[in-house]
Write a structure and sequence with these properties.
This is Methyl-viologen-reducing hydrogenase delta subunit. Its cofactor is FAD. Belongs to the HdrA family. Keywords: FAD, Flavoprotein, Iron, Iron-sulfur, Metal-binding, Oxidoreductase. Helices cover 28% and strands 18% of the residues. The protein is an alpha/beta fold and 778 residues long. α2 packs parallel to α6, α7 packs across α13 and α10 packs parallel to α11. The protein has 20 helices and 30 strands.
């Protein structure tokens, strides 16, 4: 489009009082751009002024006012490029004049004086002007073979509930179940914990009613005795191949670099360069691996509700508890089978089990830990099964030994009802040993609530083992993605699907595939039903957004997608390997093959590309690079003691909001810092840092989300990849004869706004201690 520029500077919210607006206006005027001011651009008159200029042909607006995180819809104009220059929170509110005094008229006459806050605001306006020159208006990505059908993998209570919810919303749904029947584990239980008021007693299984609703709905197709052989394509255009369990179907398969080839002999992860060298060698001569199945069925989104399996203890794993040695020591899953068949009897001889001990912790070296994959569900199951004993035998007794008793929400009413039963004994304690004693068992427990050791005689012992997600044993989804058929293991979820628990429940690393139920965490049936509704809604949201050509999350509504200049592609595979979401495959020649609807718009591929051939319409290497270069770096030619210049590249998801909140709370940081929001630290291309330092900036820092075991990165791997790249930049700094300490990366959570000034000021102080950049003035 032919751009017609307009610069607009708001003077409200204290901006006009704190800054020299006339000097601000001179910045665009010196570039020949028209500039207007108004005391309230977000008000009715201000908006009308903007709309009038737009009607007169202005289509590229630089709006210097409040943060882009506020008044978002107010300043969104169709067909226009709008850059929000944050001079309210980013300059005025975070740099009050009582801490950064403005120059007096007499001081202004001295050319060696400078007003740090004024310089800051003027730089931000220059940066906004530079950006709009380099960006384009996005155009939506539209698919030719768009499908609105939803695939639900799993016919248990979660999958059935998700299918019914989606079908009621008007969508065509196909349910795939590997068994010959529907209902999953819910169809095998004797009774279930309450799902409604008053939450104080067991209820008959509700699964059959759900199955009936599923089978009666005209929008739902059921495929039992069927599994997913492969999912290829992208949201809105998934091609799914089905097969029977055990059936062999030959596909060309992805060839990701095996995990063992990504580490050195000590198990430490190798640097990016070495990994890519190994990747290229490993994939030498591979053919086109990701062809579509012409006979596959089309779907728009997938709900993964594959469920769980009971934990199977290894031989000798719970020897102290008698498991594997004593036939009357069983898991809770086995006990449920026995109870479903009638009054509970001992497996060893078929005699009534009138006295049963339920153990919730393995004890021994595990200390106070529960069994693996256990949680609130296993607590509820122990209470439920204790009630079975009381129902089956008038003189039955149940003993529950636990380290943690979890009965969330209104299930506390059920817990209290169990406490009132005189035949059920509950105590916190560690079971030390289970041994045979004639015709029964003896259980020894220590550290109980009674303050003394306890010995109990029983007919059976039940171990509260957990629920292992189906994805721990099987990819289930069998993706035809370059990064492999399963969700990528990022070492945090112990086999659970990799949905982001912190920010985006249901959403996996594979866009358009939403996890629900026990593949996310152990859940009660009530929780699984609720979870199913959430996943179904996310699948619908995905379909609707994809059909409009916009992203679903976390940059909801973003119309951009990565554009490649393939003529300069070296096929290094960095973008395909580093993309956290598997948005890129390879074509037959090994060139990246984009799947735009899979893309989360994080820009990690852009940061990874050494040739800088990847960009987005409104976010690219050139746009950010131009902003960096537009910052005025004072030198000794300008002042006898020029101020320092430090560049901060800040994550828009955590760091940028934290900075805004710091400003709202009156917290200040150095006015020598210039901040540029980036989509994710993973999108940071090292050329921006090199450009900043080569033009004389004294230091560069990255401020973004936490990574590691407590990762909070919206794009999962972005901040971690940025750290790896920052370690590699040391070589480049050495070639420029600059200290490595001039570049640093910091972590921040969105609610740690009070720590932001400390982080920034600490880095600025360290840069001042190093002294000015020797490139300053060149």
């Amino acid at each position: 489009m032919d751009k017609k520029y307009g610069v607009y500077i708001c003077t409200g919210c204290g901006i006009g009082e704190a800054l020299d607006v006339k000097s601000l206006c001179a910045v665009p005027e010196d570039e020949g751009l028209p500039v207007k001011t108004h005391p309230c651009f977000c008000g009715k008159e201000g908006v009308e002024l903007l709309k009038k200029d737009i009607a007169d042909g202005t289509n590229t607006l630089v709006l210097a006012a409040c943060s882009r995180r506020v008044n978002f819809d107010t300043f969104r104009f169709d067909g226009c490029i709008v850059d929000r220059v944050n001079i309210r929170e980013g300059v005025v509110w975070s740099h009050p004049r009582d801490q950064f005094p403005a120059l007096t008229d007499e001081e202004k006459e001295d050319e060696d004086n400078f007003d740090r806050v004024q310089m800051m605001a003027e730089d931000y306006i220059r940066m906004g002007m530079a950006r709009v020159e380099k960006v384009k208006l996005p155009e939506a990505y539209k698919q030719d073979n768009f499908s609105e059908r939803i695939l639900v993998i799993g016919g248990g209570i979660t999958g059935i509930s998700a299918a019914v919810d989606a079908a009621k919303a008007g969508y065509e749904v196909t349910v795939v179940e590997k068994e010959s029947y529907l209902g999953g584990y819910a169809a095998k239980v004797r009774k279930q914990t309450p799902v409604g008021e008053p939450y104080d007693s067991l209820i008959p299984p509700i699964i059959q009613g759900r199955i009936d609703a599923l089978e009666k709905h005209p929008n739902i197709t059921v495929k039992t005795n069927t599994v997913v052989a492969r999912i290829a394509g992208e949201p809105g255009d998934f091609t799914v191949t089905f097969k029977k369990p055990g059936e062999k179907i030959e596909f060309d398969v992805p060839y990701p670099l095996p995990d063992e080839m990504k580490v050195d002999e000590s198990g430490k992860e190798l640097d990016v360069e070495t990994i890519h060298e190994r990747y290229m060698e490993y994939n030498k001569g591979r053919k086109d691996i990701l062809t579509l199945d012409p006979n596959g069925e089309k779907f728009g989104a997938v709900v993964l509700a594959a469920g769980w399996r009971p934990y199977k203890p290894a031989d000798g794993e719970f020897a102290n508890l008698g498991y594997g040695e004593i036939p009357d020591v069983v898991t809770n899953a086995r006990f449920e089978e026995l109870a479903a068949a009638g009054p509970v009897k001992r497996p060893s001889d078929g005699k009534p089990a009138k006295s049963v001990v339920f153990i919730q912790s393995p004890g021994g070296e595990a200390g106070d830990a529960d069994f693996s994959y256990a949680g609130a569900v296993t607590s509820m199951v122990s209470l439920k099964q204790a009630k079975y004993v009381r129902e089956d035998y008038e003189d039955g007794k149940a003993y529950v030994f636990y380290q943690h008793m979890r009965t969330p929400g209104l299930n506390e009413n059920f817990y209290k009802s169990i406490q009132q039963d005189p035949g059920i004994f509950l105590t916190k304690g560690e079971v030390i040993q289970v041994s045979s004693n004639g015709d029964g068992l003896v259980i020894d427990a220590d550290n109980t609530l009674l303050g003394e050791n306890i010995r109990v005689k029983a007919d059976m012992v039940v171990l509260g083992t957990g629920m292992v997600p189906a994805t721990a044993d099987d990819p289930v989804v069998n993706l035809a993605y370059r990064q492999g058929p399963a969700f990528r293991d990022i070492g945090l979820f112990n086999g659970y699907s990799d949905s982001n628990f912190i920010c985006f429940p249901y959403e996996t690393q594979r866009t358009g595939i939403y996890a629900a139920g026990a593949v996310r965490r152990s859940m009660t049936m009530e929780e699984s039903i609720e979870d199913a509704a959430g996943a179904a809604l996310k699948a619908i949201q995905c379909i609707r957004s994809t059909n409009r050509g916009v992203s679903v999350h976390p940059r909801s509504g973003d119309m951009t997608f990565p554009d490649f200049f393939f003529q300069r592609c070296t096929q290094c595979k960095r973008c395909t390997e580093e993309c956290p979401f598997g948005a890129l495959d390879d074509d037959a020649k090994g060139t990246p093959k984009p799947n735009p609807a899979r893309c989360r718009r994080c820009g990690t591929c852009m940061g990874a590309c050494p040739e800088r051939i990847i960009g987005f319409a409104d976010y690219n290497v050139d746009s950010i690079g131009s902003m960096v270069k537009s910052v005025k770096v004072p030198s000794e030619d300008d002042y006898s003691e020029p101020p320092f210049r430090v560049l901060g590249l800040v994550c828009e998801n955590d760091a940028f909001p934290a900075l805004d909140m710091a400003a709202i709370n009156g917290l200040s940081y150095s006015a020598d810092v210039r901040l540029i929001p980036v989509r994710c630290l993973g999108s940071v291309n090292v050329i921006w840092i090199k450009d900043a330092l080569s033009q004389g900036m004294d230091g560069v820092f990255l401020l973004g989300c936490k990574h590691g075991d407590d990762y909070q990165c919206h794009f999962v791997k972005g901040s971690e990849l940025a750290e790896i790249r920052m370690k590699k930049i040391g070589d480049a700094l050495a070639s420029l004869a600059l200290e490595e300490e001039r570049v640093a990366q910091f972590e921040i959570a969105i609610d740690q706004y009070d720590k932001v000034p400390e982080i920034i000021n600490g880095f600025v102080e360290s840069i001042e201690a190093l002294g000015p950049n020797p490139f300053k003035g060149f």
